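input
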Amino acid sequence: MNIQIDKDWWKDIFDEVYLQTDARSVCDESLTCQEVDFLEQALDLNSDQDVPILDMCGGQGRHALELAKRGFTNVTVLDYSEYLVGVGKKAAQAHDFDIHFIRGDARNTGLAGDAFQFVLVMGSSFGYFVNEAENKGVLNEAYRMLRPDGAALLDLPDRDYVLENFKAVSQHKANEDIEVRRTRSLKDEVLYSRETVFSEKNGPVRDKTYCTRLYSPEAISDLIYSAGFSA
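output
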């Protein structure tokens, strides 16, 4: 099956429908807490709760909101989706959290260099470009924004797990009204997907395609090092 995609698919797919179709991950507070537990341990975050952190491609800021809830005071969220940034701003205001939400392109953020101690790319939000040079552009930008002694953390799909458990078609109920069907194909380490969403009340909701590049440990290591990072 050949699934055709628009190279700019990521510009308009992350909206209110996305928060329904992917609610079991991006709206799961328990999962978010587990992931932030991991961040605190892996990056030793609790040594300084005023440390500047960038949640890059951070959507509605679910990790940033949890960090703020735990007392972190210098967190910035960057995402291209105007809708998700708006959702995050409202959530932060409702809890009186001082989180900076910025709409921007991760390849060219416009943010200052050497500004962050940590740059996070969570929720499998890396590898959206078929052209690998553009994925490297995201890493180049992360490297530019990091302090010399800073660190970046990428949360990526497990390539081997995806390949071993590959399903050309899957279907699930997002809620009582919304049903999601996904068809998939693999080519050159890129997972192409077509997502159709149907509402029992209102009929077809959307039909969109998207892709995610899968990385072996060796491939992502090579890409990271090529952007200037070291172990």
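quick obs: Strands lie at 53-56, 75-79, 100-103, 116-121, 146-154, 169-173, 178-187, 190-199, 203-213.
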